[in-house]
Amino acid sequence: MSELADDLTLPVLIVGAGLGGLTLGALLENANISYHILERATELRSLGSAIAMMGPIIPAFEQLGIYEELKKVSLPLVSLDYYDTKLNSIGSTYSRNHKMACGYDQLILARPKLYNLLHQQVPAHKISMGKKVIRTRETSGRVIVCCSDDTEYNCSILVGADGTYSVVRQSYITMVGISNPPNPEKYPELSETDRTHFRLVLGDNNDSERINLQLPEDKAKAQQFRNSEWGPESINAMLKEYEDFPCAFGGTMWDLFDATPKNLISKVFLEEKVFQTWHHGRTVLLGDACHKLLPGAGQGAVMAMKDAVVLVNCLYNMRDKSDKSVNTAFASYDRQRFLEAENTTKLSAIITKTLFGHVCVYKIEHAVETDTHRVTPSAH
Predict the structure, then answer these.
(1) SS3 of residue 29 by DSSP
(2) Has residue 350 got a pLDDT over 70?
(3) Do residues 158 and 282 make contact, with C-beta atoms less than 8 angstroms apart?
(4) How far apart are CA 15 and CA 158, in angstroms?
């Protein structure tokens, strides 16, 4: 057992109670490593749309003992179907061989259901709400974390899982949300209980039914915000603009907008970047805080959860809490995760830009030493 587990002080402090932070907390709970989560929001809300769970992350849910619960709130994803604005079929991509390749079905579920499942794995007293971190400092092998309410926390290791709010390279905007269960009589496919359907309408003017827009560079610069959300007025205006769009499942988009709780609709800027530095001293980052992906491949949250799995393994294998051991653990985490983050970011860009109607040609290279595929742009 790691010495971290025997420490009566707080070894690990996690900033951010999103999917990455909760996954990390659940894994630390399972590993009997002391931790605490700080969340700046005053109440937990899971914003976003549907999320696809790929095979490589599912064993973590088995280890946590919640794989059966995960299957109960999700359905296998059989195909992704594409349509033009007149709802003519363009084509489909299939995931029938996914289970054969990795042993698990590709699952899709509503993000709030995944969020609630992970939240249940973390005891309530280990999450503090309304804790906006304003500064940190490191001293004598400890990290001091100061919050806006004048509280301080003392830890051996600080994990930043609160995303990044950069004001550079923000050129995409998206609206996401989860509607209440629609009427199966209106949408007959909802009556199917053995699989799920994912449909995407590709617009004539770089619009899609998700809904995504690409902003010109001048508009993007004019709308650079510190936070990732806007107020209800801005959201309502965007919904109004697209309420008459046809829905691939029948009716119009307004039918889905109207069935979606307004507090679960989020308007966010998107950007792509992989930061070169993921750790310094006793502070380490995961998820969007160190790699931001465009939404085309739907892998942002899954990548954060993969980060959490690798990071916990590295922490658990620490010989002691010395600076040397911490640096060794963080370096191992960085080494195991960086290449996949870099490749997945590029693959997500390919898919996203293709969906936006861009011409995007990439060259795939095989990195023999890591047995992974490297993607480098050869033309745009």
Answers:
(1) helix
(2) yes
(3) yes
(4) 8
Which letter does DSSP use for residue 221 in this model? H
Tokens representing residue 315 in the block: 């922490």
Report which of 297, 170, 290 is spatially closest to residue 227, judged by C-alpha positions.
Answer: 170
Q: What phi and psi values does residue 264 have, to the nearest 5 degrees?
A: -110, 10
**Taking Cα atoms as reference points, which of 272, 264, 267, 309 lies closest to residue 288?**
272
CA of 309: how far to CAs of 24, 27, 336, in Å? 7, 7, 11
CA 11 from chain centre, in angstroms, equals: 25
- Give the DSSP H or E segment for 313: helix 300-316
**Stretch among 195-204, 246-255, 317-326 having the lowest mean pLDDT:** 195-204
Domain boundaries, the chain: 3-75+103-166+272-341, 172-270
Task: Identify which of 236, 232, 288, 212 has the alpha carbon closest to the alpha carbon of residue 49.
Answer: 212
Which range, of 54-68, 274-288, 338-352, averages the lowest pLDDT? 338-352
pTM assigned to the model: 0.72
3-state helix, strand, coil in the chain (%, to 5): 35, 25, 40
Cα 205 from chain centroid? 27
- What DSSP string describes 100-120? HHHSS--EEEEHHHHHHHHHT
What is the rounded CA–CA span in Å between residue 275 and residue 331?
Answer: 15
Phi, psi of 248 (to 5 degrees): -65, -20
Please give the single-letter amino acid code of residue 283: T
Q: Which of 331, 304, 303 is nearest to 317 (CA)?
A: 331
**What residues contact residue 133 under an 8 Å CB cut-off, 6+ apart?**
15, 38, 40, 145, 146, 147, 148, 162
- Topology annotation, domain 3-75+103-166+272-341: FAD/NAD(P)-binding domain (3.50.50)
